[in-house]
From TrEMBL:
<feature type="region of interest" description="Disordered">
    <location>
        <begin position="1"/>
        <end position="28"/>
    </location>
</feature>
<dbReference type="InterPro" id="IPR015590">
    <property type="entry name" value="Aldehyde_DH_dom"/>
</dbReference>
<keyword id="KW-0560">Oxidoreductase</keyword>
<protein>
    <submittedName>
        <fullName>Methylmalonate-semialdehyde dehydrogenase (Acylating)</fullName>
    </submittedName>
</protein>
<dbReference type="InterPro" id="IPR016163">
    <property type="entry name" value="Ald_DH_C"/>
</dbReference>
<feature type="domain" description="Aldehyde dehydrogenase">
    <location>
        <begin position="15"/>
        <end position="459"/>
    </location>
</feature>
<dbReference type="InterPro" id="IPR016161">
    <property type="entry name" value="Ald_DH/histidinol_DH"/>
</dbReference>
<dbReference type="Pfam" id="PF00171">
    <property type="entry name" value="Aldedh"/>
</dbReference>
<dbReference type="GO" id="GO:0006574">
    <property type="term" value="P:L-valine catabolic process"/>
</dbReference>
<dbReference type="InterPro" id="IPR016162">
    <property type="entry name" value="Ald_DH_N"/>
</dbReference>
<dbReference type="GO" id="GO:0006210">
    <property type="term" value="P:thymine catabolic process"/>
</dbReference>
<dbReference type="InterPro" id="IPR010061">
    <property type="entry name" value="MeMal-semiAld_DH"/>
</dbReference>
<dbReference type="GO" id="GO:0004491">
    <property type="term" value="F:methylmalonate-semialdehyde dehydrogenase (acylating, NAD) activity"/>
</dbReference>
Length: 465
């Protein structure tokens, strides 16, 4: 089964050379997706461009109602969608259901956009002249989604783009294309006019064509740091607005007053959930001072953890195996014991001891590997967080309010957690990211999304008569 495109309201074969799609659970083929090309992108952008005037002129409250209806349809079809996600990218049904719950929350949050789209009006800014500032949609928005949250993560962007009156072209991950296809079947039922939402399957050629297309106003992407840098550079060079979220290595700092059992449960759940394939997973535990009781608890939880879901591909497993090979004698729990060559992309949880200057801490490891680092003071922990090449998220576990306040104000990352293992902001507020974790000037979600997906127009008027 080939994952289809949605262009101008019509589901059609994705087109181009077929890319195999394999099951992470078994490693066996489950279908394919067309690689796509610039001609297909041009058709999708043309459909979005044609639908733009009507959608932009639709009252913002009516646009919001369509988003709410889509949230309801996702809820009504949750079990089928969850099964598709699980088959597609390997996450458990429970995690897939959680993804859909978060997707609905983001749609409902984007439906509040009418309140944020209000302009400004100043009477007699100078004698006899009134000044008005209004927000208008920017045009056709391109959204490039990742494999790990095939429905939710792209939706974080396109829901706000649509709420602001733009039309969209969504490019699902070629590694997990079927979630996007399943959602595409619900757009017309929710009430989106033909061409307002388009889905183009494919690989790199599709992304490059979206970056280059003169009628695409913006590009939003979540991917690796290397991909984010390439897409940001290409889209920016073409004069587009761009926001590109890259990789991460998120530290969790444990102060000595934190409960070892609570921290161990939080950091292992964060590091090993979804086999570590989350951009907000905590992958480095930083203890302030030697904390042998905490280390022992983490090691025990890791040893007791079984049944992790598969990773997305054999290449992803191989990358984890390579890191563990380089770790050598510093491995405390070895996930390679769970490898099943030829029977799915499985690897177990790993725990590795490291020093603050270890080269193993400077690259993203999108897998279930937790590194343990010890520093003498909270100041040293904050310095470690800020010295990292990534700046996506960091958490602190402590009962000391002053320590938490110091950490939240001084940690140079976009998302902070206090006694929270996964520092995911709620749907109503902006999602940060710094350094190699984000390229762009305006982030996603909430008011920042409205800033990204609208342009301002200033009108100065004098009425004579």
């Amino acid at each position: 089964m080939s994952a289809p495109n949605l262009i101008g309201g019509v589901l059609e074969p994705s087109g181009g050379e077929e890319i195999p799609v394999t099951s992470p659970w078994t490693g066996e083929p489950i279908g394919s997706v067309g690689a796509g090309d610039a001609a297909i992108v041009d058709r999708a952008v043309a459909a979005a461009r044609a639908a733009l005037p009507g959608w932009a002129a639709t009252p913002s409250t009516r646009r919001a109602r369509v988003l709410v209806r889509l949230a309801g349809l996702i809820e009504a079809n949750a079990e089928d969608l969850a099964a598709t996600i699980s088959r597609d990218n390997g996450k458990t049904l429970a995690d897939a259901r959680g993804e859909l719950d978060r997707a609905r929350e983001h749609l409902e949050a984007a439906a509040t956009a009418p309140a944020l789209l209000a302009g400004e009006h100043v009477v007699d800014v100078v004698s006899g002249i009134d000044a008005t500032l209004v927000r208008e949609p920017i045009g056709v928005a391109a959204i490039v989604a990742p494999f790990n949250f095939p429905i939710m993560t792209g939706l974080i962007y396109w829901s706000w783009a649509l709420a602001c009156g733009n039309t969209v072209v969504i490019k699902p991950s070629e590694q997990a294309p079927y979630g996007g296809s399943a959602l595409a079947e619900l757009f017309a039922e929710a009430g989106f006019p033909d061409g307002v939402v388009n889905v183009v399957q494919g690989g790199r050629a599709v992304v490059e064509a979206l970056c280059d297309h003169p009628d695409v106003a913006s590009v939003s992407l979540v991917g690796s740091s290397a991909t984010a840098a390439a897409v940001y550079a290409r889209a920016s060079a073409a004069g587009k607005r761009a926001q590109a979220a890259g990789g991460a290595r998120n530290p969790l700092v444990a102060v000595g007053d934190a409960d070892p059992a609570v921290v161990a449960a939080a950091v292992t759940t964060s590091a090993f959930g979804m086999s570590g394939q989350r951009c907000l997973s905590s992958s480095i535990l930083v203890t302030v001072g030697e904390q042998p009781e905490l280390v022992d608890a983490v090691v025990q939880v890791a040893r007791d953890t079984t049944g992790l879901p598969p990773m997305i591909s054999r290449a992803a497993v191989d990358a984890v195996v390579d890191v563990l090979a380089r770790a050598g004698d510093d491995i405390l729990v070895d996930g390679r014991d769970a490898l099943t060559p030829g029977e799915g992309y499985l690897v177990g949880p790993s725990v590795v001891r490291a020093t603050v200057d270890s080269p193993l801490l400077t690259d993203e490891i999108f897998g279930p590997v937790l590194f343990l680092v010890s520093v003498p003071t909270l100041d040293a922990a904050i310095a470690f967080v800020n010295a990292g090449p990534f700046g996506n998220a960091a958490s602190i576990y402590t009962a000391d309010g002053a320590a938490a306040r110091s950490f939240t104000s001084r940690a140079d990352v976009g998302n902070i957690g206090v006694n929270v293992g996964v520092a995911a902001p709620t749907a109503q507020v902006g999602f940060g990211g710094r350094r190699r974790s984000f390229l762009g000037t305006i982030h996603s979600q909430g008011r920042t999304a409205v800033d990204f997906f609208t342009d301002i127009k200033s009108v100065s008027a004098r009425w004579v008569g």
